[in-house]
Design brief:
alpha+beta
């Protein structure tokens, strides 16, 4: 019985590893690494992204437009629009790096700075740290107003 459980555990672990390796720079993935491509994916958009287990974080953020540049631009947490859960400015976002190796940098007021690469597999877009998926976009709509 113990041997069966050990084998099943290895099979499950291999399946999880295979899924994690299917994104963020593996075969078939496309790096969204130019400033125009990142602007197309994020600028002026409300992005809803979710992180994989175990965190299962749920991101809902308005990325104000960086225009034709690289930013920085304002970043808002999208709430329900109620006094209990309002839309609140969280910091800024910008496009960093050079050439085809650009990334997205988030500067959260009082809560740190994070830089992620964007990768795409088919229609799915992922925020990545190297080959590790941080979150994937589940929906994208025009950013809320105001978005200066």
């Amino acid at each position: 019985m113990k041997k069966k459980l050990a084998v099943m555990g290895l099979v499950l672990l291999a399946g999880i590893s295979g899924e994690a390796m299917a994104i963020c720079g593996t075969a078939g993935d496309v790096r969204i690494g130019t400033a125009p491509a990142i602007r197309t994916a994020l600028s002026g958009k409300s992005i809803h992204a979710v992180a994989p287990a175990p965190s299962n974080e749920d991101w809902k953020e308005d990325h104000c437009s960086v225009g034709a540049g690289t930013g920085p631009a304002n970043l808002y947490k999208v709430g329900a629009g109620t006094p209990v859960d309002p839309r609140v400015k969280r910091g800024t976002w910008e496009i960093t790096g050079i050439g085809n190796s650009r990334s997205v940098k988030y500067i959260y007021t009082g809560d740190g700075t994070y830089t992620w690469e964007l990768w795409q597999t088919g229609a799915n877009v992922y925020f990545c740290n190297g080959t590790t998926q941080i979150a994937h976009i589940v929906s994208s709509t025009p950013a809320g107003a105001p978005c200066p």
